[in-house]
Write a structure and sequence with these properties.
Largest sheet: none
Number of domains: 1
Oligomer: single chain
Distance between the termini: 27 Å
Structural class: mainly alpha
Number of strands: 0
Radius of gyration: 18 Å
Strand content: under 5%
Length: 292
């Protein structure tokens, strides 16, 4: 791995980490279901002309429900009332959840080291939950954690599909199948998107462009190339930079408070996730085929 490879990988981690702040900005302009629907609509419009429908398209429809309606809707709804830095850390529980589901569905041996990592990761999020900022309730944080769990179920679906479809086509078809469903949900739950979205505000177009072009096209394009060029155990540890960039950007751009409880809980969460990733990097590999 040469210097330019490292620079590209770290740049992608920065893009994905800063995306937590971008989502918070977007949620200040649009309701959650509408925001997710528009994000997928833009991605579908960009990718659909360049991808072909694979033979196993029915599995993609199921995946669009898991990732599109469930994961992203839970994540964005939770983030409406959760700090970007908190969400960046809590969503990392998708790796321990993936380990548990792999053990259940594929009889994958967890081992005492990964079990310890899971306990540390969940303990770290529990410490974060003790913050005074959650004095009014834990439902938003619970939604983010539920989103991480749903993502892990989606990983099982992706793993069963194998390498039948590459990551760009996967994102394109998930977006294509998901956005009509989400638009219907948004219409009934939040109202007409033509009225609920301030279309004349540049921020709407800015966050959608960031999510579609930087996060999806550039981010996954570079990441998929790195995953195919280098061993998984050499590339996957870089994903631990995502929550770090997420926390730092939340503090810098949203002026979110950084307390000792957040620091200790965040370090514990990342340490636990790191043990899971380093001991078995393939656990997190499927998670790279989706994204916040």
């Amino acid at each position: 791995m040469k210097l330019h490879h490292l620079v590209l990988i770290v740049l992608v981690m920065m893009i994905w980490g800063f995306n937590f702040v971008v989502v918070k900005w977007g949620l200040g302009l649009m309701p959650p279901f509408t925001f997710v629907a528009l994000r997928f609509m833009v991605v579908a419009a960009m990718l659909l002309p360049f991808i072909k429908l694979p033979p196993r398209w029915r599995e993609l429809v199921g995946l669009s429900v898991t990732l599109g309606i469930l994961h992203f809707s839970l994540m964005f709804t939770g983030m409406k009332h959760v700090d970007a830095s908190t969400a960046a850390l809590a969503v990392q529980l998708q790796v321990p959840f993936a380990a548990l589901l792999a053990a259940f569905f594929f009889k994958d041996r967890i081992g005492w080291r990964r079990m310890l990592g899971m306990v540390i990761a969940f303990g770290g999020v529990a410490l974060i939950a003790g913050e005074p900022r959650f004095a009014n309730g834990y439902l938003p944080l619970a939604l983010v954690i539920a989103a991480a769990c749903v993502w892990s179920f989606a990983n099982i679906q992706i793993k069963k599909m194998g390498d039948a479809i590459d990551v760009i086509a996967l994102n394109g078809w998930i977006a294509t199948f998901a956005f009509p469903q989400l638009l219907i949900v948004a219409l009934f739950v939040e109202g007409n998107p033509l009225e609920t979205v301030p279309w004349d505000h540049w921020g709407v177009w800015g966050v959608l462009a960031y999510q579609s072009v930087l996060v999806t096209l550039i981010g996954y394009g570079v990441w998929y190339r790195m995953m195919r060029t280098f061993p998984v155990n050499q590339v996957m540890p870089f994903t631990l930079l995502i929550p770090l960039f997420g926390v730092m950007s939340g503090i810098l751009f949203l002026e979110e408070p950084l307390t000792w409880l957040m620091v200790i809980g965040g370090v514990a969460t990342l340490a636990g996730v790191a043990i899971c990733v380093i001991r078995r990097p393939a656990l997190a590999q499927a998670a790279t085929k989706g994204g916040l």
